[in-house]
Amino acid sequence: MANFLLLLLLLLLFSLWLPALPSPAATAASGRIPALIVFGDSTVDAGNNNGIKTVLKSDFRPYGRDFPGGKPTGRFCNGRLATDFIAEALGLGATVPAYLDPARSIRDFATAVCFASAGTGLDNATSDVLNVIPFWKELRYFRQYRRRLRQYLGAAAALRTIREALYIVSIGTNDFLENYFLLVTGRFKEFSVGEFEDFLVGIAGEFLTAIYRLGARKVMFTGLSPIGCLPLERTANLLRGGGCVEEYNAVAREFNGKIDAMVAELRAALPEFRLSVNGVYDLLLDMIENPSRYGFENVNEGCCGTGRFEMSYLCNDLNPHTCEDANKYVFWDAFHPTQKVNYLIAQHLFNATLVEFLK
Ligand SMILES: *[C@@H]1O[C@H](CO)[C@@H](O)[C@H](O)[C@H]1NC(C)=O
Ligand SMILES: *[C@@H]1O[C@H](CO)[C@@H](O)[C@H](O)[C@H]1NC(C)=O
Fold first, then answer.
1. What does the record give as EC number (predicted)?
2. Please, is 349 exposed, middle or buried when counting C-beta atoms within 10 Å of its C-beta (0-12, 13-18, 19+)?
């Protein structure tokens, strides 16, 4: 009887203790890809917004409560991002450091660096909405990074790192949800939604060409997820039943199709450009439609607060409604996935594309 109770107690303790998620793949590949370089928005921002004047922040609890050390870092998540798991799988460290983190130096950035800024978009008007880092400036930081890398590693080694590195670009959601459909900039008057997609795809193409000219060869562009299923969009859709906003999901699919076509053109035009688009749309939709397959219990609301609208400052430790086990949720706050989803996305990206880059 005493043994049984002890066993029960141990089981209870184990179920409370959240084990670290394993790395998506064995690191047999480590060394082949010398660095991971990340551009984009909050899906991949590792804390670049911490030091800038914007209301879009997450460097306080409960953000980061499942991060190593329970530390809020400016990631819009309870734990790590997909890019952190990918860095780990490549043997490049457990987390990708933010380029603007004053505690980090070129020594850290030589193997992994993140230029992303939460709230930004392909369109300059998107980053203006919440006063975050515009996408063109991420490119400028990358140019500066190349110079610093040359000083640190020497010209030949820096060139090799830039050429052999893996680049991940994750951007676009905010152009639609924070800009076009929110009607806060003039874009909805200026462009039909199809024209706006073309405008964004053009900017993405110019960006990809620019990093190619600066030496990048292995680049993965992640398309849009089912953006109409984010809890914030469901909340805005409450009058119509609170389901996914199909209109937004259709735009995401159409945009992804145009990105595919643009990427195929660039691959044909630019020698040795190993550019791939790897959609997370289908995977995320499958999680939302078949949650039990992944161990999820809630797909409609975020874990933080009521889960219907909280993010950034509204998702804080004073909010009494925050859930206990984020692993049961697809969404952490009203706009961003949980660490568990990020881990599954990393696995998917790894399986689908990254293994190709390792050959
Ligand atoms: C965005 O702004 C930058 C800096 O002002 C400018 O160089 C760039 O051409 C703009 N991009 C577009 C698509 O207008
Ligand atoms: C990725 O591949 C691993 C190993 O083959 C497998 O266990 C895992 O289920 C795959 N994950 C996804 C999301 O495809």
1. 3.2.1.51
2. buried
283 alpha carbon, closest ligand: 2
Please state whether the peptide bond connecting residue 62 to the residue before it is cis, i.e. omega within 30 degrees of 0: yes
Provide residues with CB under 6 Å of ligand 1. Answer: 124, 136, 203
Mutate to test the pocket of ligand 1, among 120, 127, 133, 136 (most ligand atoms within 8 A of CB): 136
State pLDDT tens for residues 283-294.
999 999 999 999
pLDDT tens digit sequence for 75-133: 999 999 999 999 999 999 999 999 999 999 999 999 999 999 999 999 999 999 999 99
pLDDT at 138 over 90: yes
Ligand 2 atom closest to Cα of residue 348 = 13
- Expressed in percent and rounded to 5, the helix, strand and coil fractions of the chain are 50, 10, 40
| CATH architecture, domain 27-280+341-358 | 3-Layer(aba) Sandwich (3.40)
Distance 270 CA to ligand 1 centre (A): 23
Crossing angle (nearest 10°) for helices 193-213 and 135-153 = 10
Residue 331 DSSP symbol = E
CA of 349 to the centre of ligand 2 (A): 10
Q: Give the residue carrying structure tokens 């209301």.
A: 55
